[in-house]
Amino acid sequence: MTRDDLFNINAGIVKSLCTAIAKYCPNAIVNMISNPVNSTVPIAAEVFKKAGTYDESKLCGVTTLDVVRAKTFYAGKARFRLLMLMSLLSAAMLATPASNASLSHEDIKALTKRTQDGGTEVVEAKAGKGSATLSMAYAGAVFADACLKGLNGVPDIVECSYVQSSITELPFFASKVRLGKNGVEEVLGLGPLSDYEKEGLENLKPELKSSIEKGIKFAKEN
């Protein structure tokens, strides 16, 4: 199933659900996990703006599955516990770990692609009889738990999320965020990037821009 297929199925569902959220629980922290998140988060934002309830700190695109996959694949390849990882939606980027272990450029390229194609790998392993539902559920639970910890005042809760952001020229972007009692309390920067990561960042921008615009257009026209 392509991202366009997912959009056609989920866009209307997300719009309807967010309309209800705006009416019945306008102060809720919304964790958007419906794909394609690059488009469904902008849809949600437009619905909330129209209802007068939009709060950028309370709308989070869940990108945790990319992080979980990248951590798992990286640790398996490097044969040690991952110490540092950064994942960007649509182009997971593996930072150099703070340890003696290192991976070649070719290894990092292969792991990046495997992270991007993780869902397809699961579908193929199941011979088309299922999808990555369990890993998605786990990722959603991890991020929801982080939000609950933040709401309960646990300090220094940092996760990756796709949120309204000024890190790039795009209105939404995935990066590390600090979660607290009001949802996203701080959008953290990307930190130093390798040349490979810089290239990946620039390459993903046109597709991400198009996905954002597609979501906004849908919300305004439907």
From TrEMBL:
GO terms for biological process: malate metabolic process; tricarboxylic acid cycle. InterPro entries: Lactate/malate_DH_C, Lactate/malate_DH_N, Lactate_DH/Glyco_Ohase_4_C, Malate_DH_AS, NAD(P)-bd_dom_sf. One of its GO terms (molecular function) is L-malate dehydrogenase (NAD+) activity. Residues 100-218 form the Lactate/malate dehydrogenase C-terminal domain. SUPFAM superfamilies: LDH C-terminal domain-like, NAD(P)-binding Rossmann-fold domains. Gene3D superfamilies: Lactate dehydrogenase/glycoside hydrolase, family 4, C-terminal, NAD(P)-binding Rossmann-like Domain. Belongs to the LDH/MDH superfamily. MDH type 1 family. Homodimer. This is Malate dehydrogenase. The lineage of its organism: Eukaryota, Viridiplantae, Streptophyta, Embryophyta, Tracheophyta.
